[in-house]
Design brief:
Layout lengths: L3 H24 L4 H12 L4 H8 L5 H48 L10 H15 L3 E2 L5 E3 H4 L19 E3 L2 E3 L5 H9 L4 E10 L11 E11 L4 H16 L5 E8 L2 E10 L18 E10 L1 H6 L8 E8 H9 L12 H4 L5
Parallel strand pairs: 1-5
Antiparallel strand pairs: 2-4, 3-4, 5-6, 6-10, 7-8, 8-9, 9-10
The structure holds zinc ion.
């Protein structure tokens, strides 16, 4: 045994070596098994720290005191560090297990009824499909609309009596909640060159009181074509195809003269009753008349075309618009428009596929 001072230095070096070993071991730690092994290797009864402690026995008192303190401190540090890691690893394992169990739960979960698509969404999807199948493109327009697109561009100047029933929800001068989907016509015509074949679906707003057939907010679908040589016959053909695809069977279409500021000539369009064909005098759908009015249509007014910079001598077109609620009410035999907006489960459940 040499100089106590050299001995002390040698032992201090060993303590530092143990610290290094511990660091290296931590870098490789992956799971709780590794952690147990590391704990035994360093602070277990036969661990590196304990062995160093034992080797102090034969040394002078002052070295024992100094090194003993460092070794105890090291042992405590290692123990604390490992406990924290153990806790963290435990939490991670628990979280993983909970995630797995949750996955499992969702597999076993059976809802008490089949969730369903809202009838309005369903009919809108169906309408989109029908018209896309006929070659129409779907275009969206804003619900908060500029006065020009909602009125002036559609041949409804500020002194036109037709404004009376439509100018309702003004947000600020020049802007209102659109009263129909027709502004999309003007938006398309002023930004593109014909020909076009467009449908647009969405919410509209009017100052109607809520009753079984009216709502201040409702949905419309607008369709229009501008091309060379478009006539009323094309309009009738498209509408017959629409009625047959949506209501089933081979439907007849009746055009009844009417008036809209943005079409000339204009027509109310009725289809033959898809329930009774006019044979049931007590039919709940046609009330025995045999015809159901479903929409308004007409040839696009020359003023609407020229307002948008399209020559009415060169181009012609037709437009139609219908209430989506009305189509859904007829198709699903719903007798009150308010049912669409009340979110009542007993109503909505009936539309589970
Ligand atoms: Zn009928």
């Amino acid at each position: 045994m040499g100089d106590p001072k050299d001995l002390r230095d040698q032992l201090m070096e060993k303590v530092n070596e143990v610290k290094e070993h511990f660091k290296e071991a931590l870098a490789e730690l992956k799971n709780l098994e590794d952690l147990k092994r590391i704990r035994a290797r360093f602070i277990g009864p036969k661990g590196e720290v304990s062995e160093l402690m034992k080797s102090l026995k034969t040394l002078p008192k002052e070295i024992v005191r100094e090194l003993g303190r460092s070794l105890n401190q090291l042992k405590e540090e290692i123990s604390k560090h490992l406990s924290e890691l153990e806790k963290k690893l435990g939490e991670e394992i628990l979280r993983k297990r909970l995630l797995e169990e949750r996955k499992d739960l969702s597999v076993r979960y059976k809802p008490t009824y089949t969730p369903s698509i809202h009838p309005l969404t369903r009919i809108m999807r169906e309408l989109k499909e029908v018209f896309m199948g006929l070659g129409f493109e779907v275009v969206e327009g804003p619900e908060l609309e500029e006065e020009y697109y909602n009125f002036d561009g559609l041949n409804i100047p500020s002194d036109h009596p037709a404004r009376d029933m439509w100018d309702s929800f003004w947000v600020r001068p020049g802007y209102l909640l659109r009263s129909h989907t027709s502004p999309v016509q003007v938006r398309v015509m002023t930004t593109r060159k014909p020909p076009f074949k467009v449908v647009s679906l969405g919410k509209c707003y009017r100052r109607d009181d809520l009753d079984p057939t009216h709502s201040f907010q409702f949905h419309q679908i607008e369709g229009f074509i501008v091309d060379k040589g478009i006539t009323f016959a094309h309009l009738k053909g498209v509408l017959m195809e629409f009625a047959s695809r949506v209501f089933g069977g081979k439907r007849k279409v009746k055009l009844i003269p009417s008036y809209f500021p943005f079409t000339e000539p204009s027509a109310e369009v009725a289809i033959d009753c898809f329930r009774c064909g006019g044979k049931d005098p007590h039919c709940p759908i046609c009330k025995g008349e045999g015809w159901i009015e479903v929409l308004g249509a007409g040839m696009i007014h020359p003023n609407v075309l020229s307002n948008a910079g399209i020559s009415p001598q060169e181009w012609t077109g037709f437009a139609f618009g219908m209430g989506i609620e009305r189509i859904a009410m007829l198709k699903y035999q719903i007798d009150d428009i308010r049912l669409f907006y009340e979110n009542r489960l007993d109503f909505l459940k009936q539309f589970s596929a």
